Amino acid sequence: MQRNANARTNRKIRRGKGTFMGMDVLILHTVGRRSGQPRETPLMHLSDGRGGLLIVASGGGGRNPDWHSNVVAHPDRVSIEMPGRNAVPVTAHELEGDDREQAWHQVATAQPRIAKYQSKSDRKYPLIRLTVM
Question: Which InterPro entries match (predicted)?
Answer without folding.
Answer: F420H2_quin_Rdtase (IPR004378), Split_barrel_FMN-bd (IPR012349)
